[in-house]
Amino acid sequence: MTLPTGASRRSFVVASVGAALALGTGGTARARDRSPFGRYGSPSARLDGRTLYVHPGGLGDHTTVQAAVNAASGSGHTLVIAPGTYRGTVAVSAARTELTWLGASGDARDVVIVHDNANGTQKPDGSGPYGTTGSATTTVQADGFTARDITFANDWLRADHPEITGTQAVAIKVQGDRSAFLRCRFLGHQDTLYADSLALTAFARQYFAHCYVEGDVDFVFGRATAVFEHCHFRTLRRTDLAAAPYGFIFAPSTAVANPRGYLVTSSRVTSGAPDAFYKLARPWVPGSDPTARPMLTVRETRLGAGIDAVEPYTNMSATYPWQSQRFAEYRNSGPGAVITVPANRPRLTPAEAVSHTRGTYLGDWRPYEHR
């Protein structure tokens, strides 16, 4: 569900977990009879010695996600996170490998990790703005990270800060290899989901299945090799713009040496905006990597009317036209997929499509077999 105004949307992020907070702290009779950690045990009945429990009211080992991450030193820990709104930034260092986060209720709407920094937000120490990377609510650098049934959000709003021009506000930045997100939600506006890697030469593989992602400008971006399967992308209505385009869903920045960029398969795109007010993608060639050759394949996905079917792609910079990048589609459907100008819709042949599957993108890592 998408709410039209900034204030109501922020209220929705918080209110969506209000009922869930009753678990273990009173509430309905049904809630009182249930553990706040659902089927994942409790501090008195741990799944194993490497499982830690997070509860905002003190019924777990820790009251914040960051405190639990700090305690999970080394490799192979699991955090079971009880329903609640966890406000604040969270960082997972590269040393904390094979870390798993489990939303205890099994519903991502119940467990929300949220903060409200933007690119242009000034740091409290006076050293300057956070920048895009620094704006991330959650940052994951470790390999082997898995999250299930969790919402990652950045609820910074343009309307609240007209003085700030750096409006990128990242919900999560993922840089590690073998990072999997199952039944998660990613909420934000500009630059919601930063699917990236630790270095130009690091081709980090990431997998998103049955996830929901919303935003307006470049809200899925970065240089990772990322597969989005059975995901829902939602473009938001904007009240600060009177004309199209409102924004762009994908802005990959794939390194030229990486043979695999973003793959979207068996998914759907819907919109809260007028018809044709969004582009499907534009290539991002960052100043830090002027040789980047962005790659995006969208296949067997339903594109709603919010996508501009006549010109679904556009440039971020005239120096790097989208036609020179690695953009392609295959057997998409819906009003946003109607081909009116063939030159504007690069398509794979059936023979080429064989190389654009989750198996070819992820190689010997098969997270889809363990969902």
3D architecture notes:
- Mean pLDDT is 92; it is low at 1-8 and 14-33.
- The protein is globular, with a radius of gyration of 20 Å.
- It is mostly beta strands and 371 residues long.
- Helices cover 9% and strands 27% of the residues.
- The protein has helices spanning 6-15, 29-32, 65-71, 131-134, 350-353, 358-362; strands at residues 51-54, 78-81, 84-87, 90-92, 100-103, 111-115, 138-140, 146-148, 151-154, 172-174, 179-182, 185-187, 193-195, 205-209, 212-215, 217-222, 225-229, 232-235, 247-252, 262-265, 268-271, 278-281, 295-299, 302-303, 326-330.
- Helix 3 links the parallel strand 1 (51-54) and strand 2.
- The strands form three sheets. It has a ten-stranded parallel sheet. An eight-stranded parallel sheet has the order 3-6-9-12-15-18-21-24, with no helix packed on it. A seven-stranded parallel sheet has the order 4-7-10-13-16-19-22.
- The protein has six helices and 25 strands.
- The two termini are 25 Å apart.
Question: What tags apply to this protein structure?
Answer:
371 residues, 6 helices, disordered N terminus, 10-stranded parallel sheet, mainly beta
Summarize the structure.
This protein is mainly beta and 371 residues long.
Question: How much helicity do the residues have?
Answer: under 10%
Strand proportion, as a percent range, falls in 25-35%
Q: Give the biggest beta sheet.
A: 10 strands, parallel
Terminal CA distance: 25 Å
> DSSP helix count?
6
The residue ranges in which pLDDT falls below 50 over 5 or more consecutive positions are 1-8, 14-33
The strand order across the widest sheet is 1-2-5-8-11-14-17-20-23-25
Instruction: Give the strand tally.
Output: 25
Q: Given the helix and strand composition, which structural class is it?
A: mainly beta
Shape by Cα distribution: globular
Please compute the radius of gyration using only Cα atoms.
20 Å
Mean pLDDT: 92
